[in-house]
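Hi R.,

As promised on Friday, here is the backbone we talked about, encoded as structure tokens. Could you run it through your design pipeline when you get a chance and send me back a sequence?
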């Protein structure tokens, strides 16, 4: 098993710490999704929903343009790209970690080129062209198992057979050049290997999902009277199929040149599997974690979640999904792919804070430009120290700084070093509450830069990065603010070196904003 303090998933320019669980928000840009009924098929609606998922607590946004529900209609690469590319472009521009959920190498290649950091392949990188996309980029790779288990089919169930390929070729044959003789029938053009593979993969996935939806039975152990002897099928053959496939595909990626640190595995709940089999697989999460790859729990609103919870409506299975996710996290899973980000984040943050001691270092900038400024700084430090699961370990001296960002009067600034066990979005809510308690108001149009009794900016948090309208971590303007860098010098030996290690460039002092002009002395905040 990966040591939690060292576990990192390398995804393009992002190194995602798995010291605590991460949430991948599902964004279906499709008209026929099983779970949301095409609510985000419109580009603008999809972008807005993706931004909301970030503010709800998503660490990653998984964008998909083709439904894989039972009986799904295959979508061409061109159509899929039209759906997802504008959404991916907008979310990447917003700073989000974006995953492309696709089985089409052409779509994956374009998405990665535009900034997507993860390729989530429902066919488990069985397509050589998809392997090539992984090799030619530095994206994270989600290897998913889509197929039947318990001996109903061969382990490599997504491998295409000749009959499927032949049927696909016939279905996708196109007219050739005009016949030489008017009486001679026109000959169909030979389909490309990519067309054959794509059509056959769609056919195979469709059949897998149809069989799963019909509840095709698997072998069970019975007594002479015909009654089932066990409540669930035997685990060993199921896990040999699933773990064997995932291990084989991960090794194939590594042999091709993909580093192990980029690979994540997903047992593919609901894809060709019965409810009983999905429960067996979820109970074996610890075994999959022991393979040494990050494991994805992608159970959100799936049929087996409905079976164990008694909830028939897929969209109403969010609470049940959260329960299964918590069980997965307790087994070592650190990636949760869900639709209801806000609900799962609430459950996860509460569970993690109580069950897993996780104090982390963070820095908060404090500023005041009205009234008794030093008193507001002191009171803010004291209130931060009173936040649950949080303590202030040090506070810098106070400094008089030049106005910046349109502020009309000089500002008193300081920085606080804290330890906290709260999730970043929970902490930022607590900091906003400190501002409210000290009379901070945010008039429309001032963008937070107007007169204020106190300003509490979360600058940096150990092991955390985030994009969103509510919170961006590390603070995007940290390296240009003299009124932050100078107070941080009171808290550490070399903030420039520290921040550089975190990937933050600090500007030379003459290029910074809000230059420090005077030392206002120590803050006796305790």
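Update: got your reply. Pasting your designed sequence below so it's all in one thread:
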């Amino acid at each position: 098993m990966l040591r939690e303090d060292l576990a990192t998933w390398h995804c393009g320019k992002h190194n995602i710490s798995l010291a605590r669980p991460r949430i991948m928000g599902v964004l279906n840009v499709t008209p026929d999704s099983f779970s949301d009924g095409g609510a985000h098929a419109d580009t603008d609606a999809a972008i807005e929903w993706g931004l909301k998922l970030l503010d709800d607590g998503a660490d990653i946004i998984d964008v998909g343009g083709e439904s894989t529900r039972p009986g799904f209609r295959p979508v061409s690469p061109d159509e899929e790209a039209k759906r997802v590319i504008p959404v991916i472009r907008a979310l990447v521009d917003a700073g989000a970690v974006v995953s492309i959920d696709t089985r089409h190498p052409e779509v994956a290649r374009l998405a990665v080129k535009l900034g997507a950091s993860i390729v989530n392949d429902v066919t488990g990188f069985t397509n050589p062209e998809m392997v090539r996309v992984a090799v030619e980029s530095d994206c994270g790779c989600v290897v998913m198992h889509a197929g039947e288990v318990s001996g109903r089919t061969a382990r490599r169930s997504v491998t295409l057979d000749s009959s499927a390929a032949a049927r696909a070729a016939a279905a996708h044959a196109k007219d050739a050049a005009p016949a030489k003789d008017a009486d001679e029938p026109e000959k169909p053009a030979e389909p490309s290997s990519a067309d054959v593979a794509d059509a056959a993969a769609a056919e195979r996935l469709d059949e897998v999902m149809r069989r799963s939806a019909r509840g095709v039975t698997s072998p069970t152990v019975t007594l002479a009277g015909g009654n089932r002897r066990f409540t669930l099928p035997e685990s060993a053959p199921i896990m040999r199929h699933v773990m064997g496939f995932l291990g084989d595909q991960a090794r194939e990626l590594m042999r091709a040149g993909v580093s192990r640190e980029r690979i994540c595995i997903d047992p593919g709940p609901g894809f060709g599997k019965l409810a009983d089999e999905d429960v067996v697989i979820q109970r074996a999460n610890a075994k999959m974690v022991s393979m040494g790859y990050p494991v994805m729990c992608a159970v959100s609103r799936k049929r087996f979640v409905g079976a164990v919870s008694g909830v028939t409506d897929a969209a109403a299975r969010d609470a049940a999904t959260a329960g299964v996710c918590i069980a997965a996290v307790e087994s070592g899973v650190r990636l949760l792919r869900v639709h209801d980000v806000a609900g799962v984040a609430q459950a996860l943050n509460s569970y993690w804070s109580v069950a897993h001691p996780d104090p982390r270092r963070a820095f908060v900038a404090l500023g005041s430009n009205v009234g008794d400024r030093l008193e507001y700084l002191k009171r803010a430090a004291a209130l931060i120290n009173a936040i649950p699961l949080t303590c202030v370990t040090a506070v810098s001296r106070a400094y008089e700084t030049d106005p910046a960002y349109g502020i009309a009067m000089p500002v008193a600034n300081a920085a606080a070093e804290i330890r906290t066990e709260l999730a970043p979005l929970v902490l930022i809510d607590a900091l906003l509450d400190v501002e409210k308690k000290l009379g901070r108001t945010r008039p429309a149009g001032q963008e937070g830069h107007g007169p204020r009794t106190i300003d509490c900016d979360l600058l940096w948090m150990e092991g955390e990065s985030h994009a969103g309208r509510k919170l961006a971590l590390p603070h995007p303007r940290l390296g240009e603010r003299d009124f932050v860098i100078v107070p941080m010098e009171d808290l550490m030996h070399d903030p420039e070196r520290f921040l550089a290690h975190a990937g933050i460039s600090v500007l030379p002092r003459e290029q910074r904003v809000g230059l420090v002009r005077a030392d206002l002395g120590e803050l006796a905040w305790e």
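One thing I noticed while checking it: Residues 152-188, 216-226 have pLDDT under 50 and may be disordered.

Thanks again,
M.
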